[in-house]
Amino acid sequence: MKSFTRSWIVLLLVAVIAVAGCSNSSSPSTDSTGGTEGGSAEGVPQVLTTNLAGGEPYTLDPAFASDTTSYWIIDNLYEGLYGYDKEGKVVEAAASNVDISEDGKTYTFTIRDGAQWSNGDPLTAQDFEYAWKRVLNPETAAYDPSSFYYIKGAEEYNTGKGKVEDVGITATDDRTLKVELKSPLSFFPTIAVGRAYLPVNRAVVEQNDKWAAEAETLVGNGPFIVQDWKHNEEIVLGKNDSYWSKDLITLDTITFKMVQDSTTYYQMYKTGDLDLILSLPVDTIDQEKSNQEYLSHPSFSVYTYSFNVNEKPFNNKKIRQAFSYAIDREALANNVTKAGEVPAYGYVPYGTTAPSGKDFREEATVKYYEYNVEQAKKLLTEGLQEEGLTELPPVTFKYNTNDKHKKVAEAVQEMLKENLGVQVQLENQEWGTYIDTFKQKNFQAARMGWVGNYLDPLGVLGHYTSDNSNNFTNWSNAAYDQLIQESTYEQDPQKRFAQLHEAEGILLDELPIMNLLFSADTALVSPKVDGIIFDARSNADLRFAKRVAE
To answer: What gap in Å lies between CA 318 and CA 313, rounded to an integer?
Structure first.
């Protein structure tokens, strides 16, 4: 992997926030999000053009978003109580102050004085209370209500076993939000950076249920607003003059094209029509690695195929395991993707530090599913016998339309044919359709890349508890659920990481997901642009970007 020292790239692999004691208060200065002085650079129009390789965003309503394509826009339109600064630290954002009770269970947030929505409405504590309870309301059918289950009464309300009045989220006045946790949770600020915790404007939402679907009706509180939206073509963001920290924003406009064909958007970058592209075509990576504009860095993400354990033949654990042993992950990383990914012989990606000082991944005593054709054949035979079958039923692997995903799917298809004699059909869908297919669990096996919600093993392992809204596999395991629950609140770091390793072992033995690669992101960034931040959590952060030359 190439290392970079150029000033326009900051690579962040944020250290895991350990479960420890809570501080009682925090009062950062108003420029705690970092950045440089805003305004246009001398004589240089502050515009940036990039591309959404996933095409049209699935949604720009934070309650329903689940994908990186939507998140990239959402992260520029909204701001939660907490955010990330330029160094990747969690800092107060829409909140100017946080008081934490001595027992660590109650957080009292003060909304910034003068904070506004992009339509001029004041941003209030009631907006946060409404937005969070909207996600929890079972009638909303939001994407990630389980991210609030740390809060008193939240799970009960969301699952129909409690009342909204008993949820520990209360606006005591326009500027004060009180949040009561079930138990002390020192990394709650990291969790609360998640998109489910973003606010929405109650009056706007209740007036129009399609409020987030058009530029004219979408209202946010972040650094940018939607100026123009030509669906399936482009979306243009403009600087939000109502943003509390607008002086730290230099760009006047960001244009996101929606070109899904990787060869096409690659050529658009090479001709200067785009200033930034992510996810280079696989066939271009070798030639671009010597380019000073090229970037590849690890992502806290695992590239997988999810199994639907209610769908034959993947209702059988041994058949799932057979498929996993038949995949040569080294060949996938070195010969197919070639962008810096590494074989995933576990589920928790590299990037989290255990109490021992080692990375969680390096501390693991087992390398799960190293390539073993004989073991794969043995398990497939045993699995078929358990199911009373002499041959495998038809199998279809689904993936979303993308050059890289197509190549990986074809390679996996060939490995399963060669090593197990299995004929796998491939089916691709455009992103918006694919997201619906995945959420409806309408698949036998389906590609997905899970980015950790936060840099902690729980950020990925937590997806597979029985009640987690990110678990689309139909898999449930009581022992796994218990370990995740215990490790969430365990105060002894060594004991906690032992629980997390044990949980990973259960997950990979049961294998509702087939771990293939620990992901890496690739990009090309024009030397005319400075200040773009790349980190392990998400898409490129454009808040502090500026054009430096024409």
So the answer is: 10
Q: Contact, 522 vs 285, CB < 8 A? A: yes
Q: How far apart are CA 236 and CA 226, in angstroms?
A: 6
- Write the CB contacts of 287 (distance below 8 Å, at least 6 apart in sequence): none
pLDDT digits (tens, 9 = 90+) for 477-509: 999 999 999 999 888 999 999 999 999 999 999
CA atoms within 13 A on the CB side of 97: 8
User: What is the reported pLDDT for 534?
Assistant: 87
Q: How confident is the model over 76-104, as pLDDT tens digits?
A: 999 999 999 988 889 999 999 999 999 99
Separation between Cα atoms, residue 511 and residue 318, nearest integer Å: 9
Work out the pLDDT band at 6, boundaries 50, 70, 90. very low
550 close to 44: Cβ distance less than 8 angstroms? yes
Name residue, tokens 């769908």: 311
Residue 320 has φ and ψ, to the nearest 5°, of: -60, -45
Question: How many Å apart are CA 70 and CA 432, to the nearest integer?
Answer: 10
Structure tokens at 15: 């250290």
For the chain, give percent helix, strand, coil, nearest 5.
Answer: 30, 20, 45
Separation CA 369–CA 515 (nearest Å): 9
For 331-388, give the secondary structure using H, E and C.
HHHHHHHCCCCEECCCCCCCCCECCCCCEHHHHCCCCCCCCCHHHHHHHHHHHHHHCC
pLDDT above 90 for 21? no
H/E segment holding residue 533: strand 533-535
Higher pLDDT, 488 or 41: 488
Q: What is the DSSP string of 384-437?
A: HHHTT-SSPPPEEEEEES-HHHHHHHHHHHHHHHHHH---EEEEEE-HHHHHHH
Q: Are strands 546-547 and 234-239 parallel, antiparallel or unpaired?
A: unpaired
Parallel, antiparallel, or unpaired: how do β-strands 169-173 and 176-180 relate? antiparallel
CB distance 431 to 55 below 8 Å: yes
Burial class (CB in 10 A: 0-12, 13-18, 19+), 430: middle
Strands (E), 101-168: 106-111
Residue 262: C-alpha distances to residues 71, 185, 333, 534 (Å): 20, 42, 19, 20
First to last CA, the chain: 30
Pinpoint the alpha helices (H) of 137-180. Answer: 154-158
The whole-number average pLDDT for the span 160-180 is 98
Q: Specify burial of residue 221 (Cβ count, 10 A radius: 0-12, 13-18, 19+).
A: buried
**475-514 b/e with 16+ CB inside 10 Å = b?**
bebeebbebbeebbebeeeeebbbbbbebbbbbbebbbbb
Give the SS3 label for residue 524.
strand
pTM for the whole structure: 0.82
Give the SS3 label for residue 236. strand
Q: Which two tokens stand for residue 415?
A: 């490995």
